[in-house]
Amino acid sequence: MIPTNRLYFGDNLKFLRDRDFFPSESVDLIYLDPPFNSNQSYNVLYKEAEGTPSTAQVKAFEDTWRWDESAAKALHEMNTVIDYTPQPLVALINMLEEFLKHSPMYAYLVQMGVRLVEMHRILKPTGSLFLHCDPTASHYLKLLLDGIFGPKNFRNDIVWHYSGWNKKLKSRIESRHDTIFLYRKKLRFTFNYPTAEWESKEEYIKVRKQKIHVDKDGREYVLSDAGKGKRIKRYIEDAMAYGRPLDDLFNIEKLTSGEKESLGYDTQKPVRLLRRIITTGSNPGDMILDPFCGCGTTIDAVETLNQETPDKPPRKWIGIDITHLAIDLMKNRLMTRFGIDRNYYDVIGEPTTLEEAKALALENRKQFEYWALGLIGARPWGKPDRGIDGYRYFLHGAKRKYEKCIVQVKSGKVNPSMIRDLKGTMERVNAKLGVFITLEKPTKEMITESAATGFYHSEVMNKDYPRLQILTIKELFKDPDIFKIPPGGQLASAPKFKKRDDSQNKMFD
What are the structural domains of the chain? Predict the structure, then answer.
């Protein structure tokens, strides 16, 4: 059993295969919204401290697949190494190779197939999987799922429909839906039929078209079908409490950039969609996994349900993402939405030692940069402006206006000219504070150059702060609060938002 809530930073396949992290039959529900092989890049569009959209866009991930050594290795493992790979999947993958050749689509399917095999392994016998996709690869993905779970365990092809301004396209009809495949692992699985709350007795009578009877005590009831030609008496309040059964067309609106729930994450899904999925496929106390967690909507939905049912065992969650940008968004979303700090969950895969930080820098400098920015609550800069990697807001002056502290991150060798360059950048963009984060130890000349920048006096705190601070990763490991800055906005771009009371979408256990 997996005992705690967890965030994993890294390739989900590495973690899914680790049986210390994911023992067989340990997860109750898996929801995945993987890349769709759309051949596009997806961004995060941040909001400014005042709530207005920013022009800064940071690439969250690139949904482009290619046949490379990693894909070839995954195919080899499915064919010869992983002895629990279902044989129907092996036959299907080899057949698709003849059809698709070593195309980007085939690379995508191989990479998805090897991950879905692990997801099937870790699902409990009573568990289920919801796979979210679009027409780009949905027909192929269903074949993969049939090969892994078996055609008999396919339950639903759910259509998530959302509205929008339709255009008259030249060669196709406007698309306004995604597909969500539901598969169970075994015959007996957790399933709570989704229902919506009846708005009124009049709506119930109109939709159900049942005759209303009145008993001797004046209570209204209907006669419902009990099967085999039998009818049973059901009082109106009991019939309405049962809820209005929904169908496989989920009419739930997409997020717009103006909604408070929106984080500016291109592929962000609405919490109300995930609430419906989670309440359908799990019970209180169950473990929920999202192996492509993005900005953390699945985790948000789980915690929302936990808050709404404090008298029941809380659902637990696990989120995995390959970008530290997503991990940082999830951390801040948990804190801003629910006041949940790091004591409530574990983070696996982040550097915890100087050696691990150096390894991350060598593996992926951009992910190292995002991780280092997160250490001081800064967000990526996201603009084509050399000399600035990130920034953090703070309150300035008697009128409490927001100002930016600019941040530069270095993972290689450093020298005094870099501090002089950052000072010049501060002057150019009129930044009152600057931070230089370095993996290597700064030289004495760098420290002298930084000190010569002087101090900034905060009217908010009536306190002086160094205008330019040099922080090493080693120091940040030792003392996370070593960075000194006046109070103000951090990366937590996930503002609190009101719960939507929509009778069409409100779900009940």
Answer: 5-193+246-350 (3.40.50.150), 196-243 (no CATH), 355-478 (3.40.1350.10)
Distance, in Å, from the CA atom of 250 to the CA atom of 487, rounded to the nearest integer, reads: 43
Q: In angstroms, how far apart are the furthest CA atoms of the chain? A: 95
CA angle, residues 54, 58, 61, in degrees to nearest 5: 140
* H or E, element range at 468: strand 468-472
Q: Which pLDDT tens digit goes with each residue over 24-62?
A: 999 999 999 998 755 555 444 344 444 443 434 444 445
Does residue 64 have a pLDDT over 80? no
Q: Which residues contact 314 (CB under 8 A, 6 or more apart)?
A: 284, 285, 306
Q: What is the pTM of this model?
A: 0.87
CA atoms within 13 A on the CB side of 483: 28
Query: Taking Cα atoms as reference points, which of 499, 494, 400, 498 lies closest to residue 47?
Result: 494
Closest CA relative to residue 1, chosen from 349, 342, 286? 286
Of the ranges 1-15, 30-44, 119-133, 397-411, which is most confident?
A: 119-133
pLDDT above 60: residue 1: no
The DSSP call for residue 345 is: E
The predicted model gives 402-409 an average pLDDT of 95
Residues 6 or more apart whose Cβ sits within 8 Å of residue 192: 279, 280, 281, 283, 509
